[in-house]
Each structure stands twice: as C-alpha cells, then as structure tokens.
Design a protein that fits this description.
Blueprint (H helix, E strand, L loop, with lengths): L10 H9 L2 H10 L4 E2 H5 L6 H13 L3 E6 L2 E6 L1 H35 L1
Antiparallel strand pairs: 1-3, 2-3
Helix pairs in contact: 1-4
C-alpha cells in the first residue's frame, strides 16, 4: 500500500485498503444485514478459517468492523461511521471534479457562441 503520509497510514488509508479486496467487500455487504459470527461470514469463501480471519483483521484495522468474543464465537459488526467517512471523502472529490467539469463545459459553450 502506498504511504504518502510520513507518520504512517491514516484511518482513511486503512479503510480504502480494506475495501480494495473483493472478499472484504463481500463481508461488508453481509454485515449490512446485521451482526454475524466470523465462522458464518467465512462459509461462502473457499479458504481456511485462519486465512479468512486475516481479512477480518484488515477490516478491523480499517475501522470498518468491530469484533467481540461471545463464548466460543467471534462476533463481527459493521462500523457504519467509518463507511460514512470514506463516502464523505469520495463525495468531496466528486463535487470538486463535477464543479471543474461544469466550468469546462461552460467555457466550451461560450467559445461555441462566439463562432
């Protein structure tokens, strides 16, 4: 993962890194339905449980999920606030680009009116 921050990756960096993998995005989708055990989340994937748990650790490091022990189960919960932060970051850039494109479009329309 590219690190442009000399102090280390930020929570936003770790969140986007976590979302860069299809398995982890599928886990996020499943957790939108509600809290689930790690073993339940792992069922659809063709990988050993220890390998799947590494995906959960990446999601947790990115602030996208939280986990807790409940007896012998590791329960996972979606952290919607972090998803909102990531979405807000994207929306801020989208708004800036949309504004630039609108200005460029207006400039071309002005040039077209003068010919």
């Amino acid at each position: 993962m590219a690190n442009l921050n000399a102090a280390g990756p930020t929570r936003i960096d770790l969140g986007f890194h976590a979302l860069a993998d299809a398995t982890r995005r599928a886990v996020i989708q499943k957790l939108h339905e509600g809290e689930a055990a790690a073993t339940e989340l792992a069922e659809p994937f063709d990988m050993a449980l220890p390998s799947f748990m590494k995906h959960l650790k990446v999601l947790e490091a990115g602030g996208l999920i939280s986990t807790r022990k409940e007896g012998r189960k590791r329960m996972c919960r979606l952290e919607r606030e972090q998803l909102a932060r990531l979405s807000g970051w994207i929306n801020a850039y989208e708004a800036g680009w949309r504004n630039r494109l609108n200005r460029m479009e207006a400039m071309f329309e002005d040039k077209g009116d003068k010919t």
